[in-house]
Amino acid sequence: MTDPYEIDEDSPVFAIAVAAELAGMHPQTLRQYDRIGLVVPGRTRGGSRRYSARNIEQLREVARLSSEGVSLSAIARMLDLEDEVRDLRRRVGELESRLRDELESRPGARVFAAGATGAVVTLRAGTRVRRSADIVLWTPPPRG
């Protein structure tokens, strides 16, 4: 069960003045980062910026990296890659859940791994697959 008081880190809730204070920056810096697409907040219907907890963390990371001499374009690439990794992890979790559900609903199904060379191996339940392998779910056709 999820905590009803847990804050969604992607919910845009902080006005620019609050976000700037939480990030230790001037509001004009946040506006500039938004203009160049570095940290882009959500918007209200009226067009006001609203920052999420994740945006605040990104702003702090931008400040830290910038103070270490990392260029803004490099920081933007890092933030994009972090977003991509988060999305991919979420997608892998969804696919693992779907595969688990599929295996439970099809008792006769078997899972195979196929490597880059084309070798095919039947997997036992709970066996981990090398990252270089593809997973294939095979269900024998119904007899009859």
In short:
The protein is 46% helix and 12% strand.
Describe what you observe in this structure.
It holds the Pfam family MerR_1. Keywords: Coiled coil, DNA-binding. Residues 13-81 form the HTH merR-type domain. The protein has helices at residues 16-23, 27-35, 53-67, 72-105; strands at 42-43, 49-50, 110-114, 120-122, 134-138. Strand 1 (42-43) and strand 2 (49-50) form a beta hairpin. The longest helix is centred in the middle third of the chain and has 34 residues, at 72-105. The chain folds into two domains: 1-105, Multidrug-efflux Transporter Regulator, Chain: A, Domain 2, CATH 1.10.1660.10; 106-144, no CATH class. The protein has 144 residues and is an alpha+beta fold. Helix 1 (16-23) packs across helix 2 and helix 1 packs across helix 3 (53-67). It is elongated, with a radius of gyration of 23 Å. The strands form two sheets. A three-stranded antiparallel sheet has the order 4-3-5, with no helix packed on it. Strands 1-2 form a two-stranded antiparallel ribbon. The mean pLDDT is 84. The chain contains four helices and five strands; from the N terminus they run ααββααβββ.
